[in-house]
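ok, trying the design again with the full structure, not the truncated one.
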């Protein structure tokens, strides 16, 4: 089935043309293709956000400060994000995802890897995220981050079951999520690995974001969360480990040897004061994520470069590009963007601004305007629902 009609982008200001057939970059221009003219713009690779949370998309609309102010990482989770995720219903989740995805596309991000949790709306939550991504034209890997922190083991079983319900499409792949080693039992970790193998997919999990995760794994008799997840069979090759702030050099090398991807989230790590992920420099498989901050990856990369300089990390340059290899692996595509066999995802920039965005050969942003929705209307709706969400959080 063709994802879209053939599309020919260009020529751009350098005379470059790029063809997309059946959602993939093609070597030669197709007959009778639709033409997307670039004006004085330049065709370029788009961006991949390798770890984020669409459920936090309303946070930019004046989320009240937690009180009393959190001092530790676990308090930040307890007083802010674990309260927000419990307050989500279908409507707030939908608008949260719409707002986040729309802004990410307008910024030239064409794929994101989401990690979702909404404990009072587990069943059907990933269908909402799927619909939003399909409507607006975002490529995505989706999972529910199974956890036992609210309702115990049954909660995790339901979370893992939700991961099975994502139907693959030209834009979407379901993967298997675990919240983090420190909020799940051995049974849940084992089950996540088993489901990932059964579905020929991977596991997406937070790892060593804070020392609390490391201390928990040690109290259970492991060297750290990486060793625990690996020993219990959850680290299927290709799995995605978000953060790794407190992994040692040897652990980063072990993740690499297990063919796992690591994802650095510099704005989030700085904001949560968990530290700089020093040892990620010892793997070539490190992508860049926003971890719930906006999906403008140029902003994320600027933060990365600023922090990398402070920490003498000379390996930061390729992290944004590594996201392409991660996404290509899940869609069985060539990893180098804009080459034949790669995903048909790209941007056209003009005067430093994003003019067009193409995902799988579909024009999702044209002349700076979203094709699948109205950004102003989404923003107004999101603002309205955000107030409702803050009220619900305050009542918890
Ligand atoms: Zn995260």
């Amino acid at each position: 089935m063709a994802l879209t009609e053939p599309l020919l982008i260009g020529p751009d200001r350098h005379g470059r043309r790029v063809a997309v057939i059946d959602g993939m970059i093609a070597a030669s221009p197709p007959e009778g293709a639709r033409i997307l003219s670039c004006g004085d713009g330049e065709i370029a690779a788009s961006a991949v956000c390798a770890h984020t949370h669409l459920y936090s998309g309303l946070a930019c609309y004046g989320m009240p400060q937690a009180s009393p102010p959190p001092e530790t990482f676990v308090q930040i989770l307890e007083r802010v994000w674990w309260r927000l995720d419990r307050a989500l219903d279908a409507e707030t989740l939908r608008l949260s995802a719409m707002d986040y995805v729309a802004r990410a596309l307008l910024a030239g991000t064409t794929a994101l890897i989401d990690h979702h949790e909404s404990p009072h709306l587990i069943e059907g939550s990933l269908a909402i995220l799927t619909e939003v991504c399909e409507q607006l034209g975002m490529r995505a890997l989706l999972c529910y981050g199974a956890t036992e922190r609210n309702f115990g083991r049954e909660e995790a079983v339901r979370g893992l079951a939700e991961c099975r319900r994502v139907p693959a499409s030209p834009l979407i792949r379901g993967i298997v999520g675990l919240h983090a080693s420190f909020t799940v039992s051995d049974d849940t970790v084992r089950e996540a690995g088993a489901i990932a193998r059964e579905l020929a997919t991977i596991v997406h999990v937070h790892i060593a974001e804070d020392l609390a995760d490391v201390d928990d794994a040690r109290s259970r008799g492991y060297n750290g969360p990486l060793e625990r997840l690996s020993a219990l069979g959850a680290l299927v090759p290709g799995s995605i480990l978000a953060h790794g702030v407190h992994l040692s050099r040897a652990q980063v090398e072990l993740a690499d040897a297990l063919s796992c991807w690591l994802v650095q989230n510099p704005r989030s790590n700085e904001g949560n004061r968990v530290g700089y992920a020093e040892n990620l420099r010892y793997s070539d498989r490190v992508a860049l994520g926003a971890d719930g901050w906006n999906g403008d990856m140029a902003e994320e990369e600027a933060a990365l470069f600023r922090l990398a300089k402070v920490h003498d990390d000379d390996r930061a340059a390729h992290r944004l590009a590594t996201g392409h290899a991660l996404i290509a692996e899940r869609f069985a595509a060539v990893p180098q963007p804009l080459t034949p066999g790669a995903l048909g995802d790209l941007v056209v920039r003009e005067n430093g601004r994003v003019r067009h965005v193409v995902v799988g050969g579909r024009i999702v942003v044209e002349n700076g305007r979203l094709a699948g929705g109205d950004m102003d209307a989404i923003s107004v709706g999101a603002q309205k629902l955000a107030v409702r969400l803050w009220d619900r959080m305050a009542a918890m």
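Keeping the full-length input from now on. Residues 51, 53, 115, 206, 242, 291 surround zinc ion (CB under 6 Å).
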